[in-house]
Design goal:
By secondary structure, the protein is an alpha+beta fold. The protein has six helices and four strands. It has two domains: 41 residues, Arc Repressor Mutant, subunit A (Orthogonal Bundle), CATH 1.10.10; 80 residues, 2-Layer Sandwich (Alpha-Beta Plaits).
Length: 144
């Protein structure tokens, strides 16, 4: 990746709906060159996809929590497969330390969050959970 590719990625991260013509103009390249570069970035897996960012008012209404999961030895693959099926589990990470997995759980209401937490706690192989409700976001570099 060179500086032109980095500029394209920066602009697309800020506004994924930026027209190809406008993107090319801001980077200082032709529209065709911009299209070719974006295609190469997609082919190489640098750009993995495009998504929709929810507005701050929608995000503020959601209830989010970090859930730490202690998993029995050799049960992690089954727990991960079960978590994939739960739409409230947005991210799942393997971690070091006392717990084995960390999940970001998002729900529209506290009742839905409670159901999701209960479901995680009932998964075969989950020995223990610890939940931290997210009160506010101070820095979110993933959204820019």
């Amino acid at each position: 990746m060179d500086k032109t590719d980095e500029a394209i990625i920066t602009l697309l991260r800020a506004n994924g709906r930026l027209s190809l013509s406008e993107l090319a103009r801001q980077v200082g390249i032709s529209r065709t060159t911009a299209q070719d570069r974006i295609s190469r970035l997609e082919t190489r897996g640098v750009i993995a996809g495009y998504t929709v960012r929810l507005g701050d008012d929608i995000m503020a209404r959601q209830v989010r929590a970090h859930v730490m999961l202690k998993v029995a030895p050799r049960a992690q693959d089954g727990v991960v497969a079960s978590c994939r099926k739960q739409k409230s589990v947005r991210n799942l990470f393997t971690i070091s330390g006392e717990f084995d997995l960390s999940a970001l759980v998002v729900a529209d209401t506290t009742a839905e969050l409670d159901e999701a937490l209960d479901a995680l706690g009932r998964l075969s192989g989950v020995e223990r959970t610890q939940t931290n409700i997210i009160l506010s976001t101070k820095i979110d570099r993933g959204r820019s």
